[in-house]
Write a structure and sequence with these properties.
single chain; 231 residues; alpha+beta; four-stranded antiparallel beta sheet; 3 helices; 40% strand
Length: 231
């Protein structure tokens, strides 16, 4: 099999890489189509195509790393996580990244009032952690309650977290219908979920993979509407 060889007119200099990066950012070739081989062959010689693809990958990875760096996470690697929404609100968004070096995840939560006019008023924490090390999490708040806080701690030996949850009642409203999402992340990948405007997160499920030292997560979400939640 013949070996790939970059034509001698091109070299791996910073100048060439800069030119390729400029093409990636400003050319009329849609960056979303950078892996279209036919389009690449029409526009660039073979050697530059290879450089272009390499730089494309680094640019995309850099953008992902920059996005994570811009997030003010609610916990650090291997550290406790203790988060509560402001009074009257419940958790409606979850963003998380995994660090292979740490065998752990960092989380960022977002909160809002359950629905127009609803107030999350009567609240309580689970008395105990809901899971053991490396065991599934299967937690659901009582009817007409939403998750308004999370607490967890990490163990370096198990490379896992145990979890507690805070539930708050949607006073004057009821939750119906409810549904379980699909898994929202792959192992070692970003988790990024925001509930629809009329929904709250009522339950949290996850399962652990020993080889990946990570969890996949899914949520129980419920639509909130006016009703008698405090009967």
């Amino acid at each position: 099999m013949s070996k790939f060889r970059v034509p001698t007119v091109y070299n791996w200099s910073p100048h060439i890489l800069l030119n390729v990066s400029q093409h990636l950012m400003f050319s009329d070739l849609d960056p979303r189509c950078i892996f279209s081989q036919a389009a690449m062959r029409r526009r660039f010689p073979a050697g530059l195509v290879a450089v272009y693809l390499v730089v494309s990958v680094f640019v995309l990875l850099g953008q992902a790393e920059q996005k994570a760096a811009d997030v003010e996470f609610d916990n650090n690697w291997d550290r406790r996580l203790d988060f509560e929404c402001p009074d009257g609100q419940v958790i409606t968004s979850v963003y998380s990244i995994h660090g292979d070096k740490y065998g752990d995840r960092r989380f960022k939560f977002g909160c809002r009032a359950p629905a127009d006019g609803a107030v999350a008023d009567f609240c309580g924490w689970t008395p105990n952690y809901v899971n053991m090390w490396k065991q599934p999490v299967r937690f659901v708040c009582p009817n007409n309650f939403g998750i308004a806080g999370v607490s967890s701690f990490h163990h370096n030996y198990y490379e896992d977290r145990r979890w507690k949850f805070k539930c708050c009642r949607d006073n004057g409203f009821i939750e119906t219908p409810c549904a379980l999402t699909d898994y929202l992340n792959d192992f070692d990948q970003v988790l990024n979920f925001t509930a629809p405007a009329s929904d709250v997160i009522r339950g949290w499920q996850s399962w652990y993979d020993d080889e990946r030292e990570d969890r996949r997560h899914k949520f129980v979400t419920c639509t909130v509407k006016q009703g008698s939640s405090n009967k």
